[in-house]
Amino acid sequence: MRLHQRRTRRVLAIAGAAVLAATAAACSSGNGGSSGGKVTITEFDYYTGGANAAMNAYNAQFMKAHPNIVVKRTSVPYANLITKILQDASAGDMPNLMLIDNPNVAEVAATGQLVPLDTMPGFTTADYTAGATSECTYQGKHYCYPIGANTIGLFYNKAMLAAAHLSPPTTWAQLQSDAKALTTSARYGIAFDATSDEQSTWQLEPFFWSNGASLTSVNTPAFQQALQLWVNMVKDGSASKSVLSWGQDPDLTQQFLHHKAAMIIDGPWIFPELNAAGWKYNQQYGIAQIPVRQAGQKVITPLGGETMDIGAGGSTAQQKAAWQWIQGMQQPATMTHVTSQMYYLPTKPAVVSQYLKGGPEYTVFAQEIQTARPRTTEYGANYPKVSQAIWTAIQAAITGTAPVNSALQTAQGTISGISKVSG
User: Fold this and answer.
1) Model-level pTM?
2) How many C-beta atoms surround the C-beta of residue 50 within 10 A?
């Protein structure tokens, strides 16, 4: 998942343009055109800010290294991109390249309008994190490479925890107790996203997945306990009822920066705003893994990030050019540079180990991504329907229009009628 706000650049010890030029040239394998002419490929994404700059820089260097290929990039607003892609798929008029959110891959692949990458020269899943390649799989075939990965953790105000003589919580009991202890007339102990959209399902997932629950059976004690935890923290005043309308960013970020929340659940996409405010990792703030119900449970967070996919409608020459574009992104130096601009983690563990030397604030996220779960694992292309049933239950339980067990029974009624699509 990605939050779509303006980004500033995190400085790494990399000469970005030079790196992109070198790796783009290294991936050049001929002109890729037909009859000696130029090949034009279209590329759709929804990037803004630093990510926008990264895409423009990569495209420029790729075209310099491949003078017979022209990349025409179109930036579509986030809220509109998947709708446009699905409309294009229905019309059989897909862009040659598209960068889409990972839970949408199965939905688009199900249209038959994506090119499986398995038969592309040099395709491999070796050296990638398991979740990163799993999210690209639909009915046994791989349809994408991830451009980067992210997930969520617990951000906390170090001074506030120190003043209360608290350590970062590792269990739900500690989380609820600490949130209550940190709550004053001027701030809440914790803030999270319980909005009526995918963001709230995404934020609750590590709580119920780590507790052994699944998307298939939400009317179970393991799932009920997770949602009840959120409800309890709102009921006891540790969390504001405004979590029903606070999105991950900028809402939660601003609550944190303005000392209105001592802890928030969020992800690395908020680093630009923390940096701009002069907040430094391990000074003003720290990051901990999402707490589990009982000590010893394994943290399982959702895997976020965008993917690079090839549309099925192009010519052989266009598909070859699109594949060369994707291959260029897989080079370690390019992957490091582009993901740093986008506040992602690289999807190759060997690259991550070097990456963390320049960005230790990513350490917790790197640990969680090792066991992170793609959201489409159970329902494939139908995941968005399941997510809606869950976030509807979250809203009902926190508003008090239904008790937790009743809200989840209603969600279960919806989910039981949704088909699982193998991925």
Assistant:
1) 0.87
2) 18
